[in-house]
Write a structure and sequence with these properties.
Blueprint (H helix, E strand, L loop, with lengths): L1 E3 L8 H12 L5 E2 L6 H11 L3 E6 L4 H13 L8 E6 L8 H11 L3 E4 L4 H17 L1
Parallel strand pairs: 1-2, 1-3, 3-4, 4-5
Helix pairs in contact: 2-3, 3-4
Length: 136
């Protein structure tokens, strides 16, 4: 799995948290860190062929940056079937995050986990559901 922030986001605590969470669930994780340029994220995904790309945003630009980068990732044939999820603060006005989530799904993410008390439990249920199905 690849865990990454977006180009505009300098936060790292969320990435460390996600890395530890995924490792506790038995996944091997490459954490690309904060302020990851789109080109680097695409190159690392092409090179590592991860089972899933997990993008986290804390600065409130997740929607804007996520729309841009998922298009770049999905245009690569090798990444067309790679699971891609995004979560965290998608915008700076939480009330519109539901609409933003729908637009991020339409743009190519497989799942969106907007900031909120249910985000982590929903992400863990998603992991169990998706990777149980892959293993069977």
């Amino acid at each position: 799995m690849i865990v990454s922030s977006l180009a505009s986001d300098a936060h790292t605590w969320n990435l460390v948290y996600l890395q530890l969470l995924l490792e506790e669930h038995g996944f091997q994780v490459v954490n690309l860190g904060a302020c990851v340029p789109d080109e680097l994220l695409v190159a690392e995904c092409l090179d590592r062929a991860p089972a899933m790309v997990v993008i986290s945003s804390v600065n409130g630009h997740g929607y804007q940056d996520g729309l841009r980068v998922v298009g770049q990732l999905r245009r690569r044939p090798a990444l067309a079937r790679t699971r891609m999820v995004i979560g965290g603060k998608l915008g700076i006005s939480g009330a519109r995050d539901g609409l933003r989530a729908d637009q991020l799904l339409d743009a190519g993410f497989d799942a969106v986990f907007p900031d909120g008390p249910d985000a982590v439990p929903e992400f863990e249920r998603y992991l169990s559901h998706v990777f149980e199905r892959v293993a069977s």
